[in-house]
Amino acid sequence: MIMFLQALIGGISQGAIYALIALGYSVIYSTLKMGHFAQGEFYMLGAFIGLTLSTRLGLPVVLVFVGAGIITSIVMLGLERITYRPMYNRPRNALLIATLGMQYVVQQIAKIVWGSDVKRFPAMFNNQAIHIPFMGETLAVSPQNLWTISICSALMIALVIFMKKTKTGIAMSAVSMNRKAASLMGVKITTIITATYIIAACLAAVSGVLMGPIYSVSFSMGSSMGNRAMTAAVMGGFGSLPGAMLGGILLGVAETMCSLYISTAYKDVFTFIILIIVLFWRPQGILGQAKITKV
User: Can you point out the beta strands (E) in 88-195?
Assistant: First the structure.
């Protein structure tokens, strides 16, 4: 039971990271009705920026998170203006292909700036485990996991409030429903699209800083994490914010339990088996809405 609970907490922590990146996918899809292949690379970029702010500048933890989010968002803003914005009036497939190219551009930028060597991210929080008495035994909980769950939960709640209560969030919902009608109502479509990409980049950057101390940091780390986060978004329902959260948590717990009870070698296989089962059971995702096609 102790091993199960410790694995469960670790799985929820891992899943919270997936959920945070998956929220970026869902925000972009709900607004633009398309994916973003480069989302994982901004997770990698946030990890490198956080590493630089922490080791070279010696900034405190709060400023590392804030700085990584802001700088990554500025990079996204610049690349969006140069690469994405000229594609907004073209067919959607052109913009989708541009995001695929952006994946390799961001990778090469990181490789030039930080090199190709794998780098170790120092611990952001206290490494000493918290011991909790439970059923006559001791449950050891890592502060890193608790902080990860807490920060991710706070950001998820903040994003939901932002989407429901602010003018920009409401405008994003309006653009997702009917872009032409939103434009006629005075919504600046280009500004809303830019805000969407910036939010997604900021969420990915914070995820990178949280995950950096757990795994090593390298310029190629974004691809695998991006694939897992996209899997989580599809599982929960692409475009659904609650679905992205649920899909991320379920995926993180499933991977951890597979590693504990089966083998770490089959973790990726187990992940995609779950995805296939969900797609057969509910093609729209667990919390996604099925589309009714009129004949």
Answer: 130-134, 137-141
